[in-house]
Amino acid sequence: MTVDRLFDVPRYQLAHFPKADAIASKEKGQWRPYSTQELIDLSEQLALGLLALGVLPGDTVAICSGNRSEWCLVDQAILRIGAITVPIYPTSSKEDYLYILQHAQVKVCFTANAEIHAKAAQPGCPEHQFTFDAVPGARLWSEVAKMGRQADKPLLHGYEARVKRSDLATIIYTSGT
């Protein structure tokens, strides 16, 4: 197996160095590890959920969060379908969020918590918004994975097969001004 694309790394790890704690982050004060197999399975479900939401190769999906396992899982899902990740700093202003989300034509937005969600949930921002932490009135990121459980894995593998090593993976904006 060769590692040509970023989403090949977990499969390589599973084949050669499977780990019980490939990624981990604290949830409610306790470490929550994800095994290599969980990372692959959940990122596939998320990718299928993104496809169900209408995300296609070349489309943009924003992740607005600090470092956490969900960031990695969603990024892997985005890459699997040939879409492009648009990370936005949690400390960016509300005006910067509006500019980046509109300028990058973001289709789906994932935010970490209530504070960041408030910056991204503005008129003119993506209709599909999900949060990593439970936020009253917001949809939780796990809903995207649930959408993907009923989808077609061979469909996803077809998208993955079309992703090239040279394809754009991430767009980083520095400022709206």
Secondary structure elements and pairings:
Layout: H1 8-16, E1 23-27, E2 30-34, H2 36-52, E3 60-64, H3 69-80, E4 84-87, H4 94-103, E5 106-111, H5 114-120, E6 128-131, E7 139-140, H6 142-149, H7 153-162
Helix pairs in contact: 1-2, 2-3, 2-6
Explain this structure.
Helices cover 41% and strands 18% of the residues. The chain is an alpha/beta fold and 177 residues long. A 5-stranded parallel beta sheet has the order 4-3-5-6-7, with helices on both faces. The chain has a two-stranded antiparallel sheet with strand order 1-2. Helix 5 (114-120) links the parallel strand 5 and strand 6 (128-131). It is globular and about 45 Å long. The model has no long low-confidence stretch (mean pLDDT 94).
Strand content: 15-25%
Q: Give the terminus-to-terminus CA distance.
A: 44 Å
Give me the oligomer status: single chain
Q: What is the residue-mean pLDDT, rounded to a whole number?
A: 94
Q: What general form does the structure show?
A: globular
Short description:
The protein has 177 residues and is of the alpha/beta class. The protein is 41% helix and 18% strand.
